[in-house]
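Example protein was shown:

_____
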Amino acid sequence: MGALTNQNSIQEEIKSRLNSGNACHHLVQNILSSSLQSKNFKIKINSLPVVLYGCETWSPTLREERRLRVFENRVLRRIFGPKRDEVIEWRKLHNEEPNDLYAFPNIVRVIKSRRKRWVWHVPRMGERRDVYRVLVGKPKEKRPLGRPRCRRKDNIKMDLKEVGCEGMDWIDVAQDRDRWWELVNEVLNLRVP
């Protein structure tokens, strides 16, 4: 799984995942560029699953989300190729065009939905489990000056806020399996620019 730091920084983990994704992307580059392969086949062999390995525990910052979106757009541009304009000139696809052609949610949505799917199991584990204590517990040490870093449970609250469940206690909501899976699907289906 990922490398944990005492500052809750996953920057190195995402960097490592992106390097692995780039290596995988480089290996299948000829297939992705080929006009002989269907777009559905190219989508199935893309390198996004390599990047998303272990993303359930991530709390990415906006900068890290942007890096992930850049990687995703590069992969999708390779899959869908250039576009011909009305004046019969070829050009690269703009950022929003691959997302319109790609029927699946963007990489940030996938991370958020996987994180919520994983978090659903934590409250049912019980307070004695280490995973529960890491996710819900409060550190005993004195925090440094400045704004506190975003914690995993803060990200969960932000995800709930996006689907209109602001102020709900996520631990109580997670006890209702049907409601929780409904929220996971809502997060996955949100479209973000």
User: Anything to note?
Assistant: The longest helix spans residues 62-80. The chain has a mean pLDDT of 76.
